[in-house]
Design goal:
The complex is a heterodimer. Chain A is mainly α. In chain A, helix 2 packs parallel to helix 4. The longest helix of chain A is centred in the C-terminal third of the chain and has 34 residues. Chain A is globular, with a radius of gyration of 17 Å. In chain B, the strands form two sheets. A five-stranded antiparallel β-sheet of chain B has the order 3-2-7-1-8, covered by helices on one side. A three-stranded antiparallel β-sheet of chain B has the order 4-5-6, with helices on one face. Chain B starts with a helix and ends in a 16-residue tail after the last strand. The chains are: A mainly alpha, B alpha+beta.
Chain lengths: ~120, ~240
């Protein structure tokens, strides 16, 4: 519940506020978003598997984003498109997390059905 | 107590996530205006038209120049005084770059180093390096200089533009990412001597360029393409 409220506040803020980040940083923003999404789905997976720890989640959320941005920045300086690595790794992990979440949800559903 | 704190932090995290996603969405919703195919074609057509117009104007200009010359010759034939004046006029034209000129001199090419071969990155020329070369040539007694066949005249300025994506000379663009050809008329030995002086061609970004120059017996330099401006300068009485 609290999560949904937070998300809504963030979306409203993002749409309403009228400042712009320079175009050159847009790659960094995309990579950061991807890293954050990865952490969020990782957290959902952990929550369903009863291994959720808020410290792990929060450190992962900011840490992943920072590392992704830092690597992209380094890649820019060296002429290597490092953001592709971030996109592939985080994208791949997103799909993995989805697969695990799906399995957990299905398992839960059938267990409940059996109990009924 | 601890639970509330955790929830607050979680909310904050999701506020950030929501903000980032919404911001990115908004950014992509109004992208930079892209030209449609039709607009691009229109622009290309316009460029072609303007090119034709430019050709026409240049030929018209040279016609007028020849007729002017014939008038002058007629006038000069009437007396020796006028003849001297005519000679001086021709001389001034040569120096100012109002006519195509030729003579012995040198031609040099500046080719940027390949980005593949220099992993540390390549620096490109700016106006500063071109002005530097120009000064070296003039100091060595060059009488006429052109850069990419653009005559450098007494009223020419050289300036990098658009974050050095091109360099403007006489309002014409040259690219520092392509080979630049510089020609100069003057004493061949002096010019070559100035250019091959140890360290002379290592100035700033020149170190990243493959620089070649050779003496030539007949360097051709076309005339200055713009009209001279005398809107402010007046002779002192």
């Amino acid at each position: 519940m609290i999560v949904v409220i937070g998300l809504l506040i963030g979306i409203i803020l993002g749409l309403a506020m009228n400042f712009s980040i320079p175009d050159i940083y847009s790659t960094y923003l995309t990579v950061a978003i991807l890293a954050c999404l990865d952490s969020v789905f990782g957290a959902l997976k952990a929550y369903l598997g009863h291994t959720f720890d808020s410290i792990v989640f929060i450190s992962g959320f900011f840490g992943n984003a920072l590392i992704a941005v830092a690597l992209t920045f380094l890649g820019d300086k060296l002429g290597i498109p490092m953001y592709l690595a971030a996109v592939i790794v985080f994208g791949g992990r997103l799909f993995n997390n989805f697969a695990v979440i799906r399995r957990l949800v299905i398992e839960r559903y059938f267990r409940r059905k059996k109990n009924d | 107590m601890k639970k509330i704190k955790t929830q607050l932090v979680l909310t904050l995290v999701f506020v950030i996530l929501g903000f980032l996603v919404a911001y990115q969405y908004k950014q992509l919703k109004d992208p930079v205006k892209q030209l449609t195919v039709q607009e691009t074609e229109d622009l290309l057509q316009e460029i072609d038209l303007l090119k034709v117009e430019k050709e026409n104007l240049i030929s018209h200009n040279s016609e007028l120049q020849t007729s002017l010359k014939s008038y002058e010759e007629n006038a000069a034939s009437t007396g020796s005084m006028n003849k001297t004046l005519k000679e001086q006029l021709d001389n001034s034209r040569l120096i100012l770059g109002m006519v195509d000129v030729k003579g012995p001199g040198i031609s040099m090419t500046l080719t940027p180093a390949s980005t593949v071969l220099s992993p540390t990155g390549v620096e490109y020329l700016t106006d500063v390096e071109l002005v530097y070369i120009l000064n070296e040539l003039n100091y060595a007694g060059a009488e006429a200089v052109s850069i990419n066949d653009i005559r450098v005249s007494i009223q020419t300025g050289i300036k990098s533009s658009s974050n050095n994506s091109y360099i403007l000379i006489n309002d014409e663009k040259i690219s520092p990412r392509e080979t630049i050809t510089i020609k100069a008329i003057g004493d061949k030995d002096k010019l070559i001597g100035a250019l091959s002086f140890n360290g002379a061609m290592d100035y700033n970004a020149l170190a990243y360029y493959d620089i070649r120059f050779q003496p030539e017996d007949a360097v051709k330099i076309s005339k200055y393409s713009k009209p001279f401006s005398t809107a402010f300068v007046k002779e002192e009485e």
